[in-house]
């Protein structure tokens, strides 16, 4: 081994050591706020309230008719909000990547600007807009139009989810679309493909990783939310997040943790299915 290679090895070792020290604060934060809470949820979810022995009764709470109804409604509204976000985000991201605006930083800033405001304040704003004497109905009444009865309905919750989580769908799709080489698109057109064929054969498959990431980033918070359903759905619309929050509020950590484990398992399975679908699409694309 030469002297130069020895020095290079020592420099790499020193750099790795410094990197580990720099990652120490994040490791402490991750252990304190991610690992330990997860361990507590698993412990309380799999133990009984009386003698703290292993049990599955807390997980079986999901089979209660009220909890099962809340779970089904949460899945339904989450899927609807995710689909609406996708239908809005993909054309918008596609238009932005084809626009003449050269500064990508400016576009990203515009997309994330609403996220600088607290999500609770954004949801309260929608509550004021949709309530019976809110701004929307005031304008409709001014023009002698019928009022909208949206507040405290699933429709209001979907609107709140779409508004709060739409940037999480736009950003990954825009990031993937902006990285597609324009020469690939031009090559497809030179070979005789029209705009429709180019989109479905080239653009859409290449943007699939961004779509999958966006779906995960919208579906997961939509399924677990309880603040939006409380403010926009009131006590008339109960989601599984509200049930879990009520369990913890009354001090039933075991029941709340058991339902949280069910929700966590379902989310992990959904993410695994989406990731597998994404990998299959990528492997087919690379084989063409």
List keywords for this structure.
disordered C terminus, 14 helices, 288 residues, mainly alpha, 78% helix
Report a brief summary of the structure.
This protein is mostly helical and 288 residues long. The chain has 14 helices and no strands. It is globular.
Itemize the secondary structure elements and their pairings.
Blueprint (H helix, E strand, L loop, with lengths): L2 H20 L1 H22 L11 H4 L4 H34 L5 H9 L6 H12 L4 H8 L11 H25 L3 H9 L4 H12 L1 H17 L2 H7 L6 H10 L3 H35 L1
Helix pairs in contact: 2-14, 4-8, 4-11, 6-8, 6-12, 8-11, 8-12, 9-10, 11-14, 13-14
Describe the overall structure.
This protein has 288 residues and is an all-alpha fold. It has helices spanning 3-22, 24-45, 57-60, 65-98, 104-112, 119-130, 135-142, 154-178, 182-190, 195-206, 208-224, 227-233, 240-249, 253-287. The two termini are 44 Å apart.
Strand coverage percent: under 5%
- Rg calc: 24 Å
Shape by Cα distribution: globular
Low-pLDDT residue intervals, each spanning 5 or more residues: 284-288
Number of strands: 0
Reading the helices and strands in chain order gives: HHHHHHHHHHHHHH
Mean pLDDT: 85
| Major sheet attributes | none
Summed up, the helix count is: 14
Based on helices, strands and strand pairing, what is the structural class?
Answer: mainly alpha
What is the terminal-to-terminal distance? 44 Å
As a percent range, the share of helical residues equals over 70%
